[in-house]
Amino acid sequence: MKSINPATGEEIATHEELTQAQIDAALDRATATFASWRDTAMEERTALLSALADAYHDHRDRLARMATLEMGKMLKSALAEVDKCVAAFRHYAKEGPAMLEGGSIALSSGGKADLVWLPIGPVLAVMPWNFPYWQVVRFLAPCILAGNVGLLKHASNVQGVAALMQEMMGVAGAPEGLFQNLPIRSDAVVGIIADDRVAAVTLTGSEGAGRAVAEQAGRALKKVVLELGGSDPFIVMPSADLDAAVKQAVTARVQNSGQSCICGKRMIVHADIYDAFLERYAAAMAAVKAGDPFDEESDMGPLSSAEQRQNVQDQIETMKAAGATLIGGETMPGPGAYMQAGILTDVPVDPALMGEEIFGPIAMLFKAADMDDAIAIANAIPFGLGSSVWTKDAAEEARFVRDVQAGMTAVNQMLASAPEAPFGGVKRSGHGRELGPFGLHEFMNLKSVYRK
């Protein structure tokens, strides 16, 4: 597997895939480590989480640089991502033990049932490249606290990141086998899911990948958590702070070069302010500077690969053929996978078009006649991950929270994940939750112990 710098097109490194014998050996290590780790004291688990936080903090520059080299993330954004991982490790180290206090329930027949949270075993994580540290840590931190062990199948283009994450486990003093990076292709995942040594699987990725993993997990009768992205609505009403909404709408599309699952992609603007919004939005998007991700003066780096840029260009052409108009969004010359930020207007309200998640710095802009129309446009796709609503009207806010079909809604701000809050979607955006106590409990056995 090759790591290619998307800013230059140059090869960084190659990584050898594991053989089947090496995969089997890794699964044996996971099984053996789980047998002992599940019995460790809570103090030992939280101490390891704190040590991991220290390791990521101490090596933040090196970790961030690798993410920038492998997938083009702005260095300042990569540093922020590493810091977010540090916060997640510290959160579960401090608050996690209280999340595992099961309590007890009085029974109407007499007696009680004590509730005990227990680990279930090795968990396979199939993770994407766009937030190569954070996507993994939001599975790994609760996995360690729960008493489980982790197996990572990372995206092939960020194997340098995956190797560094494995290294950080050693720096923190983790037992061998507690977390293992598996440099494998997607076709090897089927056999691992079916293997009795693996208890469950979590995936962040495309709808197609989610269907494949869910099917295999279903055949094996194993728990699965899926986060499959979406095409999130960003609704702006007349009472909103227009300047703030425009600013955040720009960030939503250029953060991580537009390659974020939960950032707004469909800007749905009330007709009364549509023209004013478009004028300011177009000017702000045109001012975005795409350039060297190591240069602090750049606003965004390249897309993750030339292939990913071509995917976005193909989506643009499909929408233009359906009647949409592109403002900006041109491909930039040179060896890197750069493109300018852009806006698609006049996109037909067609689920097939709107449901196409544009993983790049391109926004789709829609005019809504009223609140009902805005909600209808927001919900007219098969996905429901996140959403952002901009209004100062309390009644409108309550209606959006109730009726926009999404796992998460941000009010007068851009949606962002946090270690403390559950993360996940509805509809074809997946099922299950990560982060917070709910993410911790997803891969645990809630045992009822009946007593007189």
Can you characterise this structure?
The protein is of the alpha/beta class and 452 residues long. It has two domains: 2-228 and 429-451, Aldehyde Dehydrogenase, Chain A, domain 1 (3-Layer(aba) Sandwich), CATH 3.40.605.10; 233-418, Aldehyde Dehydrogenase, Chain A, domain 2, CATH 3.40.309. Strand 13, helix 12 (351-354) and strand 14 form a beta-alpha-beta unit. The mean pLDDT is 97. It has 15 helices and 20 strands. The radius of gyration is 23 Å and the shape is globular. The strands form five sheets. Strands 12-13-14-11-10-16-17 form a seven-stranded mixed beta sheet, sandwiched between helices. It has a six-stranded mixed beta sheet with strand order 7-6-5-8-9-19, sandwiched between helices. Keywords: NADP, Oxidoreductase. This is NAD-dependent succinate-semialdehyde dehydrogenase. Belongs to the aldehyde dehydrogenase family. Pfam families: Aldedh (PF00171). InterPro entries: Ald_DH/histidinol_DH (IPR016161), Ald_DH_C (IPR016163), Ald_DH_CS_CYS (IPR016160), Ald_DH_N (IPR016162), Aldehyde_DH_dom (IPR015590), ALDH_GabD1-like (IPR044148), GABD/Sad-like (IPR047110).
